[in-house]
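Support reply, case 0932

Customer input (verbatim):
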Amino acid sequence: MPETFSLLEKINQFVEKENFELPVFNDVAIRVLKIAQQEHFDIKEMSQLIYQDQVLVAEVLKAANSPFFGGLTKITTIKDAVIRLGASQVSNLVLMASERSKYAAKNKKFKNLFNKLWKHAVACAIGAQWLAKKLNYHEKDNEAFIGGLLHDIGKLFLLRVLDTMQSDPKTALEISEDLTHELLDSFHPLQGFKLLNQWNIPELYCQIARDHHNEEIDQNNIPLIMVRLTDQALIKLGIGIRHDPSIVLVSTAEAMILRVKEITLAELEVMLEDTLQIATA
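Our regenerated output:
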């Protein structure tokens, strides 16, 4: 652990010296989210807004036409996507698409880690949302989605800093794979909490980033519990950086709090594997 703390100090010094930060949320994505929250929204207004960013258009249409969301006919316009999936789901896809560009490595050494982290984030978002709907917490499903997408953003930040430092001749940092994993596991909750606070993200998502590995669970924070349970299911399946097939989901504190039946947890695992069709598209 002393070596890990030493590395964290180097990271903090680099971040401060180079004024390093992750790109903030895409402005179009934020505006789309606000429109989707309105009781009566204008499909044309939402579509025109998304069309301002061709990358978002391509990503949303690709996800909407994936087998996970697929219908009988191919979706060719954002308006069709809103009609088929609903404004809320489309806004979530826009947010997801806007986040994808952050998961890119400069150093080949980290490419696999970034890919795994992206798959985990997408699967956790969609899985937590699915779980909220399945357990009739419909008013919490969007919060569960966003919380799942952002819960490991501390890992993303730390990995982006390490990637930049290793690609910078001035730092010439060499770090082992074991030390990288130890750093990510130990410090990502607090780092994610600090980062989301700096972005003035709603407190709920800051708490999810900070508390998704805490031993004590806030039983009143339903989105947090959804994310925690989905996160453990992903670790069991090996979707992400960590893999522990010995996890028994029905025995977890989260499953007990939510009173989730074993068959529902089995359905969750199948659904999570299906979400990879979106993450790898």
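We compared this against your earlier run and they match. Two observations from our side: The longest helix spans residues 108-134. Residues 2-15+105-279 form a domain with the Hypothetical protein af1432 fold (CATH 1.10.3210.10). Please reopen the case if you see a mismatch on your end.
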